[in-house]
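Troubleshooting log. The previous structure file for this entry was overwritten by mistake, so regenerating from the original sequence record. Sequence copied from the archived sheet and checked twice against the printout by T.R.
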Amino acid sequence: MRKIWSWILIDKNKRVLLIKRIYTKKNNPNYWWFPWWWNEENETMEETTIREVKEEIWLDFKITKLFWVSEYWKSHLFRFLWEYSWKIIIQEEECDWYWWFSYEETKKLLMSENMIYFLKKLYDEWLIK
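Regenerated output below.
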């Protein structure tokens, strides 16, 4: 089974960071997502996540919690919570915007059912407002 890592970034106001996939993407263009990526050979989930977060949005952070592990589309999904610092700079070939959203604000966004499920879980766990 292939591994996919996803990270959940939450700010001090309990808002979640989402990125908007660029319109030229083949899969889910203009959808809002948590940042994520496939692992490279022999990488741990932490190594993949640290590398990809840095590559996609130039963010420095440290792991604070493994939030959720699940299976989706024949893959393992790992959701992490972080402490972070730095200015976010998006990778333009991957996404065209990012923002910090409250749970209520996420309800107005174009998202997959999977994303809606995870956001509700974050809300139910009191991790986002």
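The beta strands are 2-8, 16-21, 32-33, 36-38, 60-72, 75-85, 95-101. Archived copy saved in two places this time.
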